[in-house]
Design brief:
Number of domains: 2
Oligomer: single chain
Shape: elongated
Structural class: mainly alpha
Distance between the termini: 42 Å
Largest sheet: none
Order of helices and strands: HHHHHHHHH
Mean pLDDT: 95
Length: 217
């Protein structure tokens, strides 16, 4: 329902939203194929069974990254988020919401929008790094619940007070305040916050141990 090179005419987004990608088994590709068509062909497998509009969003991100048809791809990306934000926020994986943040950082002419998008990208990529190390090293023998007193970390920083610290509560509140604008970046960052709180991440594990109602997040 859309092709490359991109048409000057916006594709039928409603039709893309209702049509499904072929395939039954999702496979996330690894690495970057220098050939665009081969790369997008591999990428289709990640969206097997999903609405075609999700793959269209991924294609626009790829084109912008590779500086191919960039002005038109940026225009289509902006149109897509203006007209289909509720669907995209519900349907896209965190991987592609982060990619949308990165695209906004790269191309938005609005410094505030770029800054908000950077919050989402930084937050989720930091979680990714932390959870990667945790998977690799394993869970330490001392449980989180025992870490109720701060210990020195580096350069004046101390560890989070498990069960009672207010740092995450304040971080969440400030992030929500920054995301008060009715823009794509704000909507994406708020959705990523919600997902980080629901998934098995350091934020949800600490929330389960939190004992002070006033500083919950």
């Amino acid at each position: 329902m859309f092709g490359l090179p991109l048409s000057e005419r916006t594709p039928n987004l409603e039709a893309l939203r209702t049509a499904r990608m072929p395939g039954a088994e999702k496979i996330i590709p690894r690495g970057r194929d220098a050939d665009l068509q081969h790369h997008l062909g591999r990428l289709t497998r990640e969206f097997a069974g999903d609405p075609q509009i999700d793959f269209y969003h991924a294609t626009l991100n790829v084109l912008i990254r590779r500086n191919l048809e960039k002005p038109l791809a940026v225009q289509r990306f902006d149109e897509l988020w203006r007209e289909q934000a509720p669907h995209l926020l519900n349907s896209l994986s965190a991987r592609w919401l982060i990619s949308a943040c990165d695209t906004i950082i790269d191309v938005s002419p609005d410094p505030a929008e770029r800054a908000i998008a950077c919050v989402g990208s930084t937050l989720m990529n930091t979680i990714k790094l932390y959870e990667t190390e945790r998977r690799g090293v394993g869970v330490v023998q001392k449980p989180l619940s025992a870490m109720t007193d701060p210990v020195p970390l580096f350069d004046g920083l101390t560890s989070f007070v498990v069960g009672g610290g207010d740092m995450i509560h304040n971080l969440w509140a400030r992030t929500r305040a920054v995301c008060s604008r009715d823009t794509a970046a704000s909507k994406i960052v708020l959705e990523l916050l919600a997902r980080a709180a629901r998934a098995d991440t350091i934020y949800s594990r600490l929330a389960a141990l939190h004992e002070i109602e006033e500083t919950r997040w």
